[in-house]
What does this fold into?
Amino acid sequence: MAVHVRIEPGSLNPADLRNLIDVSNCGSVVSFVGLTRGFEEGSTVKWLEFDAWEETLPVVLEELANHAISKFSVHSVLIAHRVGSVSPSEPIVCIHVASMHREEGFSACSWLISELKHQAPLWKKEVREDGEFWKGGLG
It folds into this structure.
């Protein structure tokens, strides 16, 4: 079992990140890539700005990944998240889950993105043509 966590100030490449997970004896890789939308609430999004509690964020993501491995019996998890400015259509977050079977992989991947949004010490500001807006809550 393997866990990889990345906090990236620059761009994410989901295909390159996929090569980091251990797929030994696995029959499935399930992936989620979250992108910056270019339009929100009737207004064009210029970029998103992510701020993080950078000392704690990797610890929280690693705990989530390890929990997913034990809870769903998956083999390997990678979680990568951007900090700083992320333009429309660019990846914000990437999760790859390797598992013996697809059902566990889909369940683990879905659980991971939901828990990341609830637990990760990340804050998001939308910079749009009509102003700047901090989005409530973590993640």
